[in-house]
Each structure stands twice: as structure tokens, then as C-alpha cells.
Amino acid sequence: MAALLAFVLLTAAAIVVSGSRPGLQQGAAPVVLQVAGHLAALVGGVLLLGAARTAGVVVLGAVAVLVTVELVTWATGTGGGANIGAGLVRLVALVAVAVVTVRLAPTVLAPRRRP
To answer: How many structural domains compose the chain?
Structure first.
């Protein structure tokens, strides 16, 4: 759960950093944050395979899609915002990870509640 939360926070930070800079002056910060986020989601997905297999498969599938979209947009030189189809695919994958995180939250937080 912590790895998925780290993914969400790092992805949000990458979006904020990328949006605050002009297109040609992005630098490496957004890419570094996004790669760290993808690695956190990968770790979260692998850890979920042991506890909640379906959730782990969904997270790993979403990470595979996100990495593929990033590589395709990088290889074609279109940039993240220039291709609306890639943006939609990216959004669907991010929503899939968000749904898994929200569904797991009650089961993770339940043992920590005090009677």
C-alpha cells in the first residue's frame, strides 16, 4: 500500500514539475520523478501478487501500459501532451492503479483501528 501511495505522490509531483516549466525547459526532474513512481508501483504490484493476486496483476498491467506509453511518446518525439490517445491510455492506467489503491485501503487500515 505504501508503494502505491508513493507512486501516486511521485506521479503527481512529476505532473506539477512538468506543468510548471516551459516545454523546451523541462529538464530531467519530471522524468526522474516519473521513473521513481513507476518503480514504486512495480514494487507495489509485485508485493500484491502474494496477498491479493488480482490486484497485483492489475497494478503490474497498468505499470506495463504506462511504461509502454512513455517509451512510445519518447521514441516518436511527440511529447506527453501532444497525443490525446496516449493521454487517454495513460489516464485509464492511472485510474486502474487508483481503484486498486482505494479498494485495498479499508483492508490495510482495518487492523489499525482501535475499538
So the answer is: 1
